[in-house]
Amino acid sequence: MSLVRMKCNECIPERDKHMYVTGEEPVIPSCNIATLPGDMTERGCAFAGARGVIGGPITDIIAMVHSPVGCAWYTWGTRRHLSDQYAWATKDRLTNVAFNRRFCVTSDMQEKDVVFGGMKKLERACLEAIRLFPEAKGLIIFTTCTTGLIGDDVQAVARKVEKETGILVFAAQSPGCSGVSQSKGHHDFNTQFYRQVTELRERRPELKMREEEKTPYDVCLVGEYNMDWDLKVTRPLFEQLGLRIVSVFSGNERIENLVKMPDVKLNIVHCQRSAEYIAEMEKEGNGVPFIRCSLYGIHQTSKALREAARFFGLEERAEQIITGEMARIEKSIAFYREKLQGKKVAIYVGGPRVWHWIKLMEELGMTVVAGLCTFAHADDYEKINAKAGKGMLVIDAPNEFEIEEMLLDTKPDLFLCGMKEKHLGRKLGVPTVNSHSYEKGPYAGFAGMVNFARDLYQGIYAPVWKFQWGLNGGGETTDAAE
Ligand code: CFM
Known about the structure:
By secondary structure, the chain is α/β, with parallel strands linked by helices. It is 43% helix and 14% strand. Bound molecules: FE-MO-S cluster (CFM). The site of FE-MO-S cluster (CFM) has 14 residues, from helix 14. The site of FE-MO-S cluster has 14 residues, from helix 14.
């Protein structure tokens, strides 16, 4: 066991228990607990987890944010999850960008609504939005701190609007202040959506998949959000295997397909932080088993295909797909591996992608020297410990000072991080690659691995770094970038 004291934490020793270095004994740091006053956390709020992460990627719903305008505006469009135009093509109108990125819809709560209650206003806003967007197949009402605290009965409004308009209306009650991070919002959305879909299917059984529509190979991809079109490369892998993806929870998915989740034979769970809850509930409540997988990197994607294949007795087909895909990417990967060999990487994400990517970096000859997680739970750290080598610095819910010290101490050649921290990295001379919504994705699957490797390579070898006094004494730019 190896705990760490960072210089920046001399005045807040409580932070010590949030960080460790991987070694012989696996350590689980303090995690998923309230942020200390004075610690400038980078965490998001529960509402962000429900609206931005899980509700947002659903393609044909209106995301009605029941809040003052700021909650809706400042959380809108911050996360890249693209949706198809097909769901939006009507005879009068073709909307060719993701609905939730194009329109920000809110009940616009004012002071008097807070005092007297906002249910009437919410109802009017829902009806107006449904009138403005006739192509919408559903609406989800999201509450925030304000409307959560005043106790508006949004479920009652949802039922009323659904009755009046006939479109499916759900509620996601996850006020920002209700948990310690966005992770609470993932959990809330999962449990509430599962419950409401169960009730809906009882109320309107015609929405279930009919027996004659079912196939023995129906699956759902759970915790897959189509970041920069990941689904374009992952979906075909399972389809070539012979599986039918009935539903994706929730990237680029239509609400009618999400209502069919209980009808599938197997759930394949990718993000096991934000969506394993619903897979567990589907197992408990509807008897749908699930497998966990990672769709990043050669080894893990192959493993995911093999495990899905084993469930359905399609092992041979899986091997053919893997062989074919490997032949397609081998040369490119060999090129990038040679360039990336020996480089050190620091990764800062929500949590899961640290463990998703350790193996992938190894496949490219790189070492992960630090892994930082905004909202990971104990099971994420277990997975990190199982995959990490020795000597990797792990920090739970880091703040900016800790990130800076981490960069100065571990001296990575590349920092995989988000939009906020990239400036810090670049000012310190460390190239960065967007680890949340990618630079030029998709990054998942076999084909995505090549894009990922290319972006890592372009990050490290960008000629600009030779003009910088970076952490590593100026970038080692070589002919490779030319
Ligand atoms: Fe799951 Fe995600 Fe992640 Fe996540 Fe996120 Fe994300 Fe992430 Mo950014 S759902 S937990 S809340 S894998 S947006 S697509 S990259 S922090 S590690």
